[in-house]
Amino acid sequence: MTGTDPSATVPGARLPLSQVQADADESDLQVSLRELAALVSDSQGLPDVLSHVAMFAVRAIPGAEGAGVTLLSTDQLTRVEGLAASHPFVAEIDEIQYMVLNEGPCITAALERRTVRSGSLGGEKMWPRFGPRVGRLGVHSALSLPLLVSDRAVGAINVYARSKDAFDDHAAELGELFATPAAVAVHNAQILAQAQALAAQLQSALSSRPIIDQAIGILRGRTGGSAEEALSKLRAMSQADHVKLVEVAQHIVDEAVRRARARHSQA
Amino acid sequence: MQTTWRSGALDGADALTIPSGLAADLDLLTAALGLPDTNIATTLEALASDAATAVPSYVGLSVRIRTRDGEVELTTLDDASQIAGITTSLRIPLEAVTSAGADGTPLVLILYAAKAGAFVDLAADLAWLTGRPIDDVQLDWDLAGGILRSPAGSLRAQSAIEEAIGVLIGQGRTLDQARVELAGRAAKAGVLLPVAALAVLASISSPPATDGGPHLPGG
Questions:
Q1: What are phi and psi of B205, to 5 degrees?
Q2: How far apart are CA B199 and CA B46, in angstroms?
Q3: In whole angstroms, what separates CA A147 from the centre of its chain?
Q4: ipTM rounded to 2 decimals
Q5: Cβ A190–B65 below 8 Å, yes or no?
Q6: Which CATH code, of 3.30.2130.10, 3.40.50.2300, 3.30.450.40, 3.40.50.300, is assigned to A6-195?
Q7: Per-residue pLDDT tens for B99-129?
Q8: Which of B68, B169, B175, B206 to mutate to test the interface with A (most CBs of A within 10 A)?
Q9: Which of A191, B66, B176, B218 has the most CB within a 10 Å radius?
Q10: In chain B, what residues touch A80 (CB-CB under 8 Å)?
Q11: A144 CA to chain B: closest CA distance, Å?
Q12: Which sequence spans correspond to the domains of chain A?
């Protein structure tokens, strides 16, 4: 587990918690962790899983008013593969972070694999462009938790609050406890989503493949050339006519079959 | 067509490298897909990368698809040392995906890893995510000879069959006649269909007399 960034420690970080507040925070965390554990049993897609994790994070982390979950490409941590927000203002902030500035707490948390926070975004030196811009939206506190799987960052949870110094050490610790199982849940959902995408692509391609092979056979029968040469010919026709490869192949096969039938009907 | 940022779980083998033969197959399938922004190899690489992150001892994956002409397998495993190091597998049925033009062909994804028990947690999560009984996501099912005595054919064998049918169509048969004739040739010679198909393809090494065949669009 990574520690919080000392340079971003907020003034209120070491205020003692009342026992009542500590018990309430612990209860909220346990509820969120139970919901997280049950999340996968509802047969949901990746976007739904991310949205639910964002909502559970708001409940689990004291002071949170909104949260976002970001999945990043594991081989290119600046490329967003999935994004969800618990509230519209979080979506607006995440767009600034990822689409406009490519700078902010989530990116730092994922790249450096550590929890980062700020209690005064308007003057935050870590993100000189992001901080003031979000501060002008009236959002002054941020807590970002890396989502770590096998010590590799797969994304981050970003938690925001409008007040200053909203997240103390206690909030960061609870956030880290929540982020550990959340990382596994969202990563496994991502694996399933990718497997389903691969299955869909293969199924679609394999349904087209036989007709392309038949067209290749027809061309080879005419020219005596190789399969590669026939495929190149098909591709060239596809590109020249701006027609899909499978449609070119279908036309060739249909035409050959039509001639074969005509020949048989004449015989 | 290689991913090089992470070494594989086994010495001398890169779990995230797509073998050249598979890369060629995926290139053809991507062409058949006909979607300009989609590369099936890229999708497979992303899946392999995330599987390796979830399971550090990940070794490779296979996809088995049942088609009209039998089951075909696409696999990243082409190295004997990779296969020798496998001690566990996870079989995930994936036929219930949606895609325009898909024919609902049954498909299974099989992940392989070197460390026993490596897939237990992932199996549970994937079963729940897909709403399936845990028994549908099968651990180690493919180790009972599945890797070494694969019954699945290759995509190229199926391509040879369809190409041979295309040759026969070009020689004046209808589609049904071509299928019947190829099956008849295989039966008469006592060989499997792909072997009969290769014989048909070998017979066209020199151009046959023209039969006034179909005109090619744009050709």
A1: -65, -25
A2: 39
A3: 12
A4: 0.78
A5: no
A6: 3.30.450.40
A7: 443 445 578 899 999 999 999 888 887 877 7
A8: B169
A9: A191
A10: none
A11: 21
A12: 6-195, 199-266
Q: How far apart, in Å, are the Cα atoms of A172 and each of A29, A53, A63, A158, A159?
A: 12, 17, 11, 11, 10
Distance CA B83, CA B60 (A): 9
**Spatial distance between the Cα atoms of A112 and A127, rounded to a whole number of angstroms:** 14
Closest CA to A234 of A224, A222, A246: A246
Report domain A199-266's class: mainly alpha
Q: Do A149 and B159 touch (CB under 8 A)?
A: no
Residue A32 burial class via C-beta count within 10 angstroms: exposed 0-12, middle 13-18, buried 19 and up: buried
Q: Which amino acid is at A100?
A: V
Q: Chain-wide mean pLDDT for chain B?
A: 77
Taking the C-alpha atoms of residue A61 and residue A170, their distance in angstroms, rounded to an integer, is 9
For residue B51, list chain A residues with Cβ-Cβ distance below 8 A. Answer: 191
Structure tokens at A212: 């392309």
How many Å apart are CA A193 and CA A252, to the nearest integer? 36
Distance CA A220, CA B208 (A): 10
Residues of chain B in contact with residue A216, where contact means CB-CB under 8 angstroms, are 159, 163, 166
Per-residue pLDDT for chain A (267 aa), expressed as one digit of tens each? 334 444 444 444 445 667 777 777 777 777 766 666 665 544 567 888 888 899 999 999 999 999 999 988 766 666 777 788 999 999 999 999 988 888 999 989 988 999 999 999 998 999 999 999 999 999 999 999 999 998 888 899 999 999 999 999 999 999 999 999 899 888 888 888 888 889 888 888 888 889 999 999 999 999 988 888 999 999 899 889 888 889 999 999 999 999 888 877 776
CA–CA gap between residue A229 and residue B98 (Å, rounded) = 34
Does this chain's domain A6-195 share its CATH topology with A199-266?
A: no
Sheet containing A141-149: give its strands across.
Answer: A76-85, A66-73, A152-161, A141-149, A116-118
In whole angstroms, give the CA distance from residue A65 to residue A166: 10
- Rounded distance, CA B128 to CA B134, Å? 8
Locate the domains of chain B by residue range.
20-153, 156-202
